[in-house]
# Entry
Amino acid sequence: MKKTGKEIWVFGDYRNYFRNRVTLQLLAKATDLAKKAGNPVCAVIFGSNIKEYVNEYIAHGAEKVYVMDHISLKGYNVETYVILMEMLAKKYKPEMVLVGATCFGREFAPRVAKRLATGLTADCVDLEMNDDGLLLQTAPAFGGNLLAKIITPIHKPQMATVRPGVFKELPHDYQATGEVITVPIPKKLPENRVRLISSRHESARINKIEDAKIVVCGGRGMGSKQKFRKLYALAELLGGEVGATRPVVYSNWADHDSLIGQAGRQIKPLLLLSFGISGAIQHTAALIDAKFIIAVNKNPDAPMMKMADVAIVADANQVCSAMIREIKKRIRE
Amino acid sequence: MTMLKMVVCIKQVPMVSELPWDSRTGTLKREIAEGMMNPACKHALEAALRIKHEHGGHITVITMGPPMAAEVLYEALTLGADRGILLTDKQMAGADTLITSFTIARAIEKECPEFDLVICGSQTSDSETAQVGPQLAEELKIPSAAYIESLECWGETIRMKRLSDDFLETLEMDLPGLVTITTRHFHPRYATLSGLEEAFQFSDITILSAEDLGLSPDCIGMKASPTRILDVFSITAEKENYVMKGAVKKILEEVFEKFGDKISSAMGKDLKTHEHSD
Ligand SMILES: Cc1cc2nc3c(=O)[nH]c(=O)nc-3n(C[C@H](O)[C@H](O)[C@H](O)COP(=O)(O)OP(=O)(O)OC[C@H]3O[C@@H](n4cnc5c(N)ncnc54)[C@H](O)[C@@H]3O)c2cc1C
# Structure
């Protein structure tokens, strides 16, 4: 049966498809949100030769897909996509628009929100539907261990961005069917004012940390840049990657690419070793999917210690050095 | 090449990461917060200063905030900006990104209508939304590019590089336009104390209220902002956990004895859980 309620839209961000699953994750969340009021879950996709993604979105929960497929949309140009999204949203009037907080999405969503004169909440860690059909957007609040629930009570659509890895995608359903609405592109698209001269897939800077089985994370409690370096030795022994908190990155003890948290990356290791980290929500929001956490902190009451499976009350440096020694001793060659 | 008229948007933020915690309440001791220029805004200013030093040009720095936010304008003037504008008004407080960009856009249109390039920090350390820059460009109806790492002026256009979702992109943009700058390159210079003192004495800062901008209270601040904070709460994700203390050597032996299997299975390697086993 076809649903008639107000639509929830998910922007189809398919660049880097195999690494970037955020659209599928948002479709799963939208499916969940739609249960209450029976809203149709829709994906919106722009590009050239994108049929395979349309099918993927349907298999992952989209009941309807708005498609603009044209050779001139090949370049993944933000400005063009903003214009098209504005046009579609004004025509079809979705109730909500969810966008993955990729680099692209973080530039795209605010511009769309501006054109539609509506609110946008960045980096939500949870989304719920209340009884009035309003989207309760939970996002880390300024400083401390606080979360805020934010609503956009009047303006439509209600818009939110969510980082990759916050929600889980639904399994691929080969039986799923969905309605495909092909929308012709406007006859005259404005000239691109920002032109792509070249684009290169930059593998060197791709951080493997999101997929790492083991992450060794260090915070300000490591004490100095030099001491922080020990974490790299430990990570190498374990076959893992090094992550860092924001003060560490700001102090240049670690590269910005290793930042874990709201302003950085989301991780899901089997084993997380956390050294000298207090556990502010902006950091821990990215650790929800860590399977087993060992935390080391001098302060047993630090929030990071409370969320660990094993909480070691000790000096982070000493434990790091000792761990390196112990592992070397215990590895069976 | 004509000299660029640049506008750099900067924000004063608390030195959050340097703040001590109140362990009783689990919040930051905000009352002792000192203000500083947001790191990405410092990089944005640095980008403008380099253009000015290379090609000449004029830099207006603009900030919206409480009267104390004038501090970051003085800092920018010390470093080489030419003019400061402070947007301050109780009515402007509590604006979300949509309304902040609206307000700043009106000030730019009024005070610097001839601008060529607006430069913003890509995000602020106190909110990290990265929304104001792109929204400001929409509001001014000019092209924009976010997360720019380096740029070069080519007369009527600029060339830029950025890393966007693992793609290293080179872009070209017509001017007037807006860019937001990350903290990767453009490492900022620092202001000297004597320079700051001089700036405080001699610089010219324009202070503008909502009325000066001709904005009615209904279209600014919290009142006009579409988003509302319903509730702020703290989470305590407490786990049933195993707490260990004492001598480090002892602790580690116990870690491997009790949890060695977790470590070795994550590594995909066999570890001796007892030091003297086999
Ligand atoms: C909008 C916004 C976004 C943010 N985004 C991020 C983000 O993405 N990622 C992020 O990490 N942060 C982020 N932050 C910052 C975050 O709020 C915290 O300030 C930060 O995570 C704290 O880092 P830390 O734990 O290393 O430092 P601190 O909070 O200073 O903690 C240091 C810890 O080390 C312990 N310690 C000290 N000495 C020792 C020792 N010798 N041995 C053992 N332990 C010791 C202390 O007890 C303390 O618990 C953000 C903040 C804001 C406002």
Remarks:
- Residues A 142-143, 219-221, 223, 245-248, 259-264, 276-278, 280, 282-283, 296-299, 302, 315-316; B 16-17, 126-128 surround flavin-adenine dinucleotide (CB under 6 Å).
- Residues 239-278 of chain B form one domain.
